[in-house]
Design a protein that fits this description.
By secondary structure, the protein is α/β, with parallel strands linked by helices. The chain is built from 13 helices and twelve strands. Helix content is 38%, strand content 15%. Strands 7, 8, 9, 10, 11 and 12 form a six-stranded mixed beta sheet that branches. Strands 2-1-5-6 form a four-stranded parallel beta sheet, sandwiched between helices. A two-stranded antiparallel sheet has the order 3-4.
Length: 308
């Protein structure tokens, strides 16, 4: 078993480390790492450079302002990391808006620690990449067998869904909204998850970054299902901003709205975390898209139906 001291600056990585049976090796976390709940006891090694509770539009403006000034969206606490004396620091190179980036960690820790810590950077674009990241972390932490077992279990759950949908006649069109103002639809792994769950993702391509779109794009595609899953937002937080959508021209004329197929999902806990719970995200999509075939029990916690 690994005896390495691990700092995770990425919620998904924290979940991977815990799922590999190494929670006891974690000595520090990011400000966003909150699952499993027991990791909240760990010292926090990063912070966001904007206040909590901003609206979608205000967050977008603040992020763009910071990036345009070549400033970081997050601050890495070098003193805290030095004090915690890690052997391994896990971060990401996927999105500088979503979490502390590889560049920030390298710059913060260069020639600063008393020993050379290994930096592992995750950069998934699809489901297989997420599984490969789990393998990479397992190998780096000397628990390859644990990684193999975890992936086997996750793949089995995915295959159950694929098998049940093999002969599904309908594949409804699905718009997964990742940001409300300005509007974005979910790219990267989410279109692939929607496909596995028996839907057809619109306006975003699997494996490519989430695109900004115009409201008219949604109107033109008129998807059968709309799932609102803003990055980093809980269901409650999303509910507080649903007026942004409701006030858009022609919103109530969309078939998803008329047919009561408008949903809110927990983007923060599920869809935006490329770790083991990405399979929970597929199960959530399967419940939403094909409710007659799947009841996994996420309704109310992982997703809700939004009725006008």
């Amino acid at each position: 078993m690994s005896s390495q001291r691990i700092i995770s600056l990425l919620p998904a990585a924290t979940e991977i480390v815990c799922a590999l049976g190494l929670e006891q090796n974690l000595v520090g976390r990011s400000h966003e790492c909150d699952f499993p709940a027991s990791v909240k006891r760990l010292p926090v090694c990063s912070e966001a450079n904007f206040p909590d509770g901003l609206s979608s539009l205000a967050i977008d403006r603040k992020v763009k302002e910071l990036l345009s000034d070549a400033l970081s969206i997050y601050t890495v606490d070098r003193e805290k990391i030095k004090e915690l004396n890690p052997d391994v620091v896990i971060t990401q190179a996927q999105c500088e808006v979503c979490a502390v980036s590889l560049k920030e960690v390298e710059e913060a820790l260069e020639n600063y620690l008393d020993k050379q810590a290994r930096i592992i950077s995750l950069q998934p674009n699809g489901l297989e990449d997420i599984f490969n990241d789990i393998r990479q972390v397992a190998a780096a932490l000397n628990v390859v067998e644990n990684g193999d077992r975890l992936i086997e279990d996750l793949e089995e759950r995915v295959n159950i869904i694929r098998h049940k949908l093999k002969f599904a006649e309908s594949k409804p069109t699905v718009a997964c909204i990742e940001w409300l103002e300005p509007m974005m639809v979910s790219g990267n792994w989410v279109p692939e998850l929607a496909t596995i769950a028996g839907g057809v993702s619109v306006l975003a391509e699997a494996g490519k970054h989430s695109p900004f779109i115009q409201w008219v794009d949604i109107q033109l595609h008129d998807p059968e299902i709309i799932i609102v899953m803003p990055c980093g937002f809980s269901i409650e937080r999303t509910l507080s901003e649903m007026d942004i959508l409701l006030q858009l021209p022609g919103f109530s004329d969309l078939q998803a709205v008329k047919n009561n197929r408008l949903y809110i999902a927990d983007g923060n806990q599920y869809f935006n975390r490329p770790g083991p719970r990405i399979v929970d995200s597929i199960e959530i999509l399967a419940e939403i898209i094909h409710p007659k075939q799947f009841i996994f029990g996420y309704e109310g916690d992982g997703w809700i139906r939004f009725a006008l």
